[in-house]
């Protein structure tokens, strides 16, 4: 099966440090691997409306929701590229994940079954030297993958605040060279295992 990587860019500015780091990692993918890049700022989703107790969800077929749903279902590997904003995911990425709740309840979609066994990855740039501040972001992605029955490849962390800063983070650039080559384990909730989730 051909691997199809979907890169979802969650920054509020183009060519930010997170995107630069993600592109460096993507450069190492084999030539036969498909890549698709979608900027969530250019394809904004509407605010998520929780209808689980009110009505059935209809499958979106047009606009940003239709585009992102179809792209998500087609991907074997889903890469969330979100800067660290207030110690967690950016608002566009969080809204995208909120829409998963609706897609999970859309009749005939089999959203969870389709994503089960596929791989979720993360890439983020942060302005802190202490990488532990990214633990809430890492936890959100790991737990989302665990709920969906997905594999979790961890999060590629880089340091940078001003545009281009991450390109001076030699440790992050070194990790980027082999990030997607690693075998991603099946995601587990923290309480289901004794060892901590390896994210870096």
Automatic annotation (TrEMBL):
One of its GO terms (molecular function) is oxidoreductase activity. SUPFAM superfamilies: Flavoproteins. Residues 5-115 form the NADPH-dependent FMN reductase-like domain. This is NADPH-dependent FMN reductase-like domain-containing protein. Keywords: Flavoprotein, FMN. Pfam families: FMN_red (PF03358). PANTHER family: NAD(P)H-DEPENDENT FMN-CONTAINING OXIDOREDUCTASE YWQN-RELATED. The lineage of its organism: Bacteria, Bacillati, Actinomycetota, Actinomycetes, Kitasatosporales.
């Amino acid at each position: 099966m051909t691997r199809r990587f979907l890169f979802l860019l969650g920054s509020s500015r183009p060519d930010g440090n997170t995107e630069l780091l993600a592109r460096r990692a993507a450069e190492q993918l084999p030539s036969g691997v498909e890549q698709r890049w979608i900027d969530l700022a250019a394809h904004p989703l509407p605010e998520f409306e929780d209808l689980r107790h009110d009505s059935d969800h209809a499958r979106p077929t047009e606009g940003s929701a239709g585009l992102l749903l179809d792209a998500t279902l087609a991907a074997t590997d889903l890469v969330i590229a979100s800067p660290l904003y207030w110690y967690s995911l950016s608002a566009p990425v969080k809204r995208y994940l909120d829409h998963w709740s609706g897609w999970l309840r859309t009749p005939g979609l089999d959203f969870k079954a389709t994503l089960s066994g596929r791989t979720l990855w993360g890439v983020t740039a942060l302005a802190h030297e202490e990488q532990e501040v990214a633990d809430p972001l890492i936890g959100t992605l790991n737990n989302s993958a665990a709920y969906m029955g997905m594999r979790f490849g961890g999060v590629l962390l880089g340091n940078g605040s001003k545009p281009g800063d991450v390109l001076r983070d030699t440790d992050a650039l070194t990790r980027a060279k082999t990030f997607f080559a690693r075998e991603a384990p099946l995601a587990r909730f923290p309480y289901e295992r004794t060892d901590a989730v390896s994210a870096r």
